[in-house]
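pinging the channel bc i need a second pair of eyes. not urgent but kinda urgent?? the chain im working w is below, pasted from the shared doc
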Amino acid sequence: MPRLLPLGDAAWTVEFGDAIDPAVHARVMGFAQALGKTALPAVIEWVPTFRSCTVHFDPLAAGAETLGAHLLEIAAAAPAHAAAGRRWRIPVLFGGEDGPDLADLAQACGLTQQAVVETMTATVFPVYMLGFMPGFPYMGGLPEALAMPRLATPRTVVPARSLAVTGGLCAIYPVASPGGWRLLGRTPLELFDPNDTAAPALFAPGDEVMWQAIDAAEFARLETEQAEGRLDRAAFLVTPEAPWPR
């Protein structure tokens, strides 16, 4: 059953489970979709995550307890919804200066670096949510064989567009920032474009991502095209009819 948790005096969090799980996330997205179809004037916005959805509201426009009870009713009745997103094949330069943790992760997991890269490029990563910073995609699906905790001491600066993993998760840092995830490579593609008002973030919840290993020359070529505004995001989409390679 969904659980209602207060978040200050102007927000409720509706929790659907305690694990990062596709079925739990489908219930979160079903609830979020139901909210969009329900007339609740006091509700300002809602923020879905892996396993919960936080609903911000105007406390002067509605009683918190009454609204909370209504949210639980919606959560209980809403059908699960697995968002059907886009499929992406994203180029990544693995290892070296762009993936400084690849060698250590491979050694800790008892694998070669090439085996880690092959595992990464053979895995489909579902995008669960965006958070932490604009355009930062939290992706599940990292194989258990590659699961490792965060670094004991986070880096003060993670380069923009770094491909990183921790636990069972995978992500790309859209911009340079501090971070403790393990860095395996970098993509030449920008993940967040504030000038694209229609869709500033490259990924959205429900999307699926696969990585394509490229060499330094290809990375440099794509990065130059990106900087010059000649790189079309749509070129990295996989058509819905095309099955993922296995």
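so The chain has two domains: 3-77, 87-238. and Residues 22-36 form the longest helix (15 residues). — does that match what u expected or am i reading it wrong
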